[in-house]
Amino acid sequence: MFKHIIFTFIILSFFFCQLAVAQIASTGFEEENNIYDRVYDAKLSFNSGENRTLAELCSGKPLLLALIFTRCSGICNPFLLQLKENLQFKNNFGEFSILVLSFDPRDTQEDMMQLARWLNLENNKQWLFATTRDIEKLNLSVGFHPTWDSTRSQFDHDALLVGINKEGYITKKLIGLRNQNDLGLLISSVNDVFSPSYRLPGKNLLFSCFNYNPETGKNKPGLGLLFLTLPPVITLLIVFGISYGVRHKQI
Fold first, then answer.
1. pLDDT digits (tens, 9 = 90+) for 212-238
2. SS3 sequence of the chain
3. Beta strands 127-132 and 43-46: pairing type?
4. pLDDT of residue 116
5. Hey, which residues does 64 pair with through a beta bridge?
6. I need a surface site. Which of 20, 26, 190, 209 has the fewest CB within 10 A?
7. What phi and psi, each to the nearest 5 degrees, are found at residue 8?
8. 220 φψ region: left (φ > 0), alpha (ψ -120 to 50), beta (else)
9. What is the predicted pLDDT for the residue at 114?
10. How far is 7 from 1, CA to CA, in rounded Å?
């Protein structure tokens, strides 16, 4: 009898462990890929004629890396405009630089300076505009995969903002047009300030162990925690019941 109980406990524990692993693997959120990996040390070219590596650049100040191309007719311009707007109303984010880097081999330093002038950022020392010949390796290191659409002569790509700390490690990624709170979390991460990480609500998170509320900043126990704790609790109750029954018969 006791052997059957132990066997059942092992089977149930294995099942719920597999459920937890499957939950993590099934979300597929690209923002979580490459986190805490070292970014590729690409050689950067600036309009001033200066050439620096990415590691040299971020060693002075952490970086927010925005990957764009100047011929974009889609998300790039709204992405940069919103980033500029979100940053200009925040003066307590800490020290960092914004590197706007083209992933299009056709872009030149002059193209990037035209973009800077269009954004009225050509004299803003916090914003840096550059090109690189190492874009493929850099894209791979941050998990960025633009694809060329020959019909539209455009790249299909996400609006990606990557946080890189002074050691050259990716601390956080944001995909799409995001609000000031999300941007604040990213900037806190590059300045080595702890910030909570949470996934957006979805059907795959029904059995989460904890549910994070971004408004309160607190975690609440979820159904997953209940299911994970049920097998050992039930097993202990059964063992206690058997032990109590055996002692009662002996008396």
1. 555 555 566 766 666 667 777 788 788
2. CHHHHHHHHHHHHHHHHHHHHHHHHHCCCHHHCCCCCECCCCEEEECCCCEEEHHHHHHHCCEEEEEECCCCCCCHHHHHHHHHHHHHCCCCCCCCEEEEEECCCCCCHHHHHHHHHHCCCCCCCCEEEEEECCHHHHHHHHCCCCEEECCCCEEECCCEEEEECCCCEEEEEEECCCCHHHHHHHHHHHCCCCCCCCCCCCHHHCCCCEEEECCCCEEEECHHHHHHHHHHHHHHHHHHHHHHHHHHHHC
3. antiparallel
4. 96
5. 98, 163
6. 26
7. -65, -40
8. beta
9. 96
10. 10
d(C-alpha 128, C-alpha 105), whole Å: 18
**The pair of three-digit structure tokens given for residue 162, joined into one six-digit string:** 């990557």
Q: Answer whether 145's CB lies under 8 Å from 30's CB.
A: no
Q: Indicate whether this model's pTM tops 0.70.
A: no
List the one residue out of 138, 140, 159, 170 whose CA is nearest residue 58: 170
Given a cut of 50, the residues of the chain with pLDDT beneath it are 1-2, 5-28, 198-199
Looking up tokens 């990037």, which residue turns up?
Answer: 112
Residue 39 CB burial class (10 angstroms; 0-12, 13-18, ≥19): buried
What does each C-alpha distance from 82 to 77, 85, 177 come to in angstroms?
A: 9, 5, 7
Structure-token match 């040299």, residue found = 56
What distances in angstroms separate CA 103 from CA 110, 131, 144, 196, 216, one per listed residue?
A: 15, 7, 10, 30, 38
Predicted local distance difference test score (pLDDT) of residue 213: 58
Beta-strand pair 160-164/170-175: antiparallel
